[in-house]
Amino acid sequence: MSVSASTSPSPSASSSPNASMSSPQTTVFSIIFAISLVHLLNDSIQSIIPAMFPILHESLNLTYAQIGWIAFTLNITASFLQPLIGLYTDARPKPYILPLGVAFSLAGVVLLAYSGTFALVLFSVMLLGIGSSVLHPEASRVAYLAAGARRGLAQSIFQVGGNIGQALAPIFTALIFVPLGQHGIIWFTIAAAVAIVVQIYVAKWYKSHLSLRKKAAQTVKRTVSQLPKSTLWLALCVLVALLFSKFFYLSAMTGFYSFFLIEHFHMPVDRAQMIIFSLLAAGVVGTFFGGPLADKFGRRNMIWFSILGAAPFAILLPYANMFWSVVLCVFIGLIILSSSSVIVVYAQELVPGKVGTVSGLFFGLSFGLGGVGSAALGTLADATSITFVIQLCAYLPLLGLLAALLPSDRKLKLAPDQMQATETASADAAASDKSNGNSLNS
C-alpha cells in the first residue's frame, strides 16, 4: 500500500522512487518489477549450488550425502534467519538492509569460486544463505506495500523473478560450469553488483514510504485474526505439511533427478540438466498465472490444485521413457509451482499485521524443508538407490488432500480488509496533513 503527499503526481516525478506513491490502493509496478529483478538475480546466484552438484561430485569426489549437506547448509541458514529478520523488521523496519544482504551473497560467490575443500564450500553457501535471509522477508514486505489492492498479482510478479532465477540453474551447468568448471562462478559477481544497485533504489522508495506511513501508523488499529485459535493453528499446520510435500519433492527433482536420468538413460550432464530446466521453466509460467487465478478462483482452491494436481504426473514420472519424462516434468512444474505466491499471500491474510514475520517464516520453512530434504534424500540415496528415492518422493504430492482442511477465503477476508481500510484512511489523512503542511510553509 503506497501513499504520497499528492494524489496526482506529476509525470516528471514518476521516474523517482518517491513519486511512485500515489495512493494506498495504487499498485506501484516500478517497485514490484525492481524487487522481482533482484529476486531473479538473487535466486540465480542461489541456483549455483544445485547447478554445481554434478561438477563438485566429480572434482571434490563428494558422496550423495555430502551433496545433500551442501544444500542443507544453504537452506538451513536461510530457514533459521529469515523468520528472525522478519520479526525484527516488523518492529524496526530497516530499508538499507536490502543492499547489505546482497553484499553477503557477493562474498559467498567469490569464496565459492575458489573453494578447494568441502568445509570451504559449506562456509561459502552459508554466506549465500545469509543473503537470502535478508532478501526474502524484506522484499516480500515491499511487494505487499507496493501491491495496493492487487496482492496476488504483486506477489506473483515478485515470485516469478525468483523462479526464473532458479530455472536458470540447469542452463548455468550446461553453458558455464561444464566448460569452465567451478571458477566459472566468479561471473556471478556481476549479478550481485547489479542487485546491490537495484536494492539501493528500492530502499530509497521504502524509506520514503515509511516516513509517510509513520504518522498514519499512530492511528492504525492493530487487527488480529478473527478465526478461532484452534482453526488458526490447524491452518498453519496444514500449510507446513503442504510445504513439506512440495519442497521435499522439489529437492528430489532439482538435486537428484539429473542423476536418475544419467543412470537410466546414460545422458550427459548438460542434457539431463536441460530436462530439469523444463520443469523449472514451466514453473515460472505456473507462478505468474497462479496469483491472478487465485484472486479469481480463491487461494485455498489454488493451493489444493497446485499440490494434489501434480500427483498423477509425479507418480508416472519414474516409469516414463525419455520423451515422456520431459512432458511430465513440464506439467509437474506448471502445476506444483503455481501456488508459490498464493501460499504466502494466504498466510499473510491468515495472520494479518505480521507481513515480515509471516513472509520470513514461510520463506524460511521453504528453505529449511528443502535443505532437510536434500540432506535426508542424499543419505537415503547412498543407502538405497537414486531410483528408490525418486519413486518414493513421487507420492508426496498426495498430501495436497490436506488443503481441504484450510479455512475458506471468505473466512479470511474480514480481518485483512478491516486492516486495509483502516490503514488506507489513516494513510490518506497523513498524506493530506503533509500536503496541508507544505501549503502553509509555502
Automatic annotation (TrEMBL):
One of its GO terms (molecular function) is transmembrane transporter activity. GO terms for cellular component: plasma membrane. It comes from the Bacteria. The chain crosses the membrane at residues 62-82, 102-135, 156-178, 184-206, 231-252, 272-290, 302-319, 325-346, 358-380, 386-406. Residues 1-22, 423-442 are annotated as: Disordered. Keywords: Membrane, Transmembrane, Transmembrane helix, Transport. Residues 423-433 have a biased composition (Low complexity). Its main location: membrane. It is a multi-pass membrane protein. It is found in: Cell membrane. Gene3D superfamilies: MFS general substrate transporter like domains. Coiled coil: none annotated. SUPFAM superfamilies: MFS general substrate transporter. Residues 31-412 form the Major facilitator superfamily (MFS) profile domain. This is MFS transporter.
